[in-house]
C-alpha cells in the first residue's frame, strides 16, 4: 500500500505543479490580451477580432483550474461560524460530509463536463473557428483533479503531498496507518 501511496502522491504533486504553473501563465495571457485590446481600441481605433473570445476562454479555463487548486488547499466556501464550538466527533462528521460533497461535485463536473465537451465539439466559436468544446475543456479537467485531490485526502495522504509552494515541503517520514 505504501508503494501505491507514493505513486499516487507523486502523480498528485506533478499534476498540482502543472496546474499551478499553467494557471500563472493563463492569468498573464488574459492580462496581456485584454491590455492589447484596450490599447488597440483607444490608440488605433481598431479591435483585435479574436481577443474577447480568447480572453473569455482563458477566464473559463482559469476558473475551473483555480477551483481544483482551491479545493486542494481547502479554500472553498465553508461555514465555520459554529464549527469550533462543536465537539471533536461532530467536527469529524462535518469534515466527512464536506469530503463527500467535494467528491460528488468533482465527479459531477468530470462526468457531465466530459459530456458537454464531446457534445459541443461539432460547433465552432465565431472569431477563432475553434471547436466550441475547447471553451469547456477545463470543466472535466478541473472536476477530475478536484475528485483526485480530495480522494487522496480521504485516504489520509495529505501529509505526504508537497503543495506548499511558498515553503519547503516537510518530509513525511511516518508510516501509513490506513
From TrEMBL:
It is found in: Cell inner membrane. The chain crosses the membrane at residues 25-44, 56-75, 96-118, 130-152. One of its GO terms (cellular component) is plasma membrane. It comes from the Bacteria. InterPro entries: DctQ, TRAP_DctQ. It is a multi-pass membrane protein. It holds the Pfam family DctQ. Keywords: Cell inner membrane, Cell membrane, Membrane, Transmembrane, Transmembrane helix, Transport. The keyword Transmembrane applies. Residues 30-149 form the Tripartite ATP-independent periplasmic transporters DctQ component domain. This is TRAP-type C4-dicarboxylate transport system, small permease component. It comes from Enterocloster lavalensis. GO terms for molecular function: transmembrane transporter activity. The keyword Iron does not apply. Belongs to the TRAP transporter small permease family. PANTHER family: 2,3-DIKETO-L-GULONATE TRAP TRANSPORTER SMALL PERMEASE PROTEIN YIAM, TRAP TRANSPORTER SMALL PERMEASE PROTEIN. Its main location: membrane. GO terms for biological process: C4-dicarboxylate transport.
Amino acid at each position: 500500500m505504501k508503494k501505491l501511496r507514493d505513486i499516487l502522491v507523486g502523480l498528485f504533486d506533478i499534476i498540482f505543479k502543472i496546474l499551478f504553473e499553467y494557471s500563472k501563465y493563463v492569468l498573464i495571457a488574459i492580462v496581456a490580451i485584454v491590455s492589447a485590446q484596450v490599447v488597440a481600441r483607444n490608440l488605433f481605433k481598431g479591435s483585435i477580432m479574436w481577443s474577447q473570445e480568447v480572453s473569455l476562454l482563458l477566464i473559463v479555463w482559469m476558473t475551473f483550474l483555480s477551483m481544483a487548486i482551491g479545493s486542494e488547499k481547502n479554500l472553498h466556501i465553508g461555514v465555520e461560524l459554529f464549527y469550533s464550538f462543536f465537539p471533536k466527533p461532530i467536527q469529524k462528521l462535518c469534515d466527512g460530509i464536506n469530503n463527500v460533497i467535494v467528491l460528488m461535485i468533482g465527479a459531477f463536473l468530470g462526468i457531465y463536463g466530459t459530456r458537454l465537451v464531446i457534445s459541443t465539439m461539432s460547433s465552432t466559436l465565431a472569431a477563432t473557428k475553434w471547436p466550441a468544446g475547447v471553451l469547456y475543456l477545463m470543466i472535466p479537467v478541473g472536476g477530475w483533479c478536484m475528485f483526485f485531490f480530495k480522494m487522496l485526502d480521504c485516504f489520509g495522504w495529505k501529509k505526504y503531498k508537497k503543495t506548499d509552494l511558498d515553503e519547503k515541503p516537510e518530509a513525511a517520514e511516518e508510516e501509513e496507518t490506513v
